[in-house]
Specification:
By secondary structure, this protein is α/β, with parallel strands linked by helices. The chain contains six helices and five strands; from the N terminus they run αααβαβαβαββ. 29% of the residues are buried.
Length: 199
């Protein structure tokens, strides 16, 4: 990001190679019931044998920091528009931990929501697969929320749309047409737009 390199362009270029490449897309943090935990079981066991697992630990550090980085990108984008996070209405687009499922376990959306609420933002969400946000022990500060309809008025009524989970059922053209600001953490929007920030 600091070098002005678009990670999505790099991945697209790497994908043109006919061998030795499996695409893994970046995102706003890790989620699900296994990925945030299971690699660390391996690291723990490897330490019993005196084996280093630097790559696992580094991947963990990067993924733990991603929600902070995304919130910072959103703050800067709002500041560029002379708005503060405090008092802004933020629409979280997708709360499932991966696309096209109804499972929110350990989704990075909840860390993002918690951080943004802590900064004074008013949070709502849209997820075609999760109509009601479940109560979770890990996130007791999150209020009970229901998925908002994805209408032009709903989109335009928010200061920013934070794209967290890229469900296929979402009309991304509708979002792009009506959003004041989109922070895209999934590379859905490839062409530059005046209301788009890639994170």
């Amino acid at each position: 990001d600091a070098m002005g390199v678009d990670v999505w362009e790099v991945l697209d270029a790497a994908e043109t190679k006919p061998f030795g490449f499996m695409r893994f897309n970046p995102g706003p943090g890790w989620g699900g019931h296994c990925i945030p935990l299971d690699p660390f079981y391996l690291a723990w066991k490897a330490r019993e044998y005196g084996q280093p697992t630097k790559f696992i630990e580094l991947a963990g550090e990067v993924n733990v920091e991603m929600p902070h980085w995304v919130v910072e990108k959103l703050q800067l984008a709002l500041n560029d528009r002379r708005k503060a996070v405090n008092g802004s209405k933020i629409l979280i687009l997708g709360v499932a931990y991966k696309p096209d499922i109804d499972d929110p376990r350990e989704s990075p959306a909840f860390e993002l929501m918690s951080r943004l609420m802590g900064l004074g933002a008013e949070i709502s969400y849209h997820d075609p697969h999760i109509p009601v946000l479940p109560r979770m022990r890990s996130w007791p500060d999150l209020p009970p929320l229901t998925s908002r309809p994805l209408t032009p008025a709903e989109i335009a009524g928010h200061d920013a749309v934070l794209l967290v989970t890229d469900h296929r059922a979402v009309d991304y053209d509708l979002v792009a047409e009506h959003a004041q600001l989109i922070v895209d953490t999934r590379g859905v929007y490839r062409e530059a737009r005046p209301n788009l920030v890639r994170a």
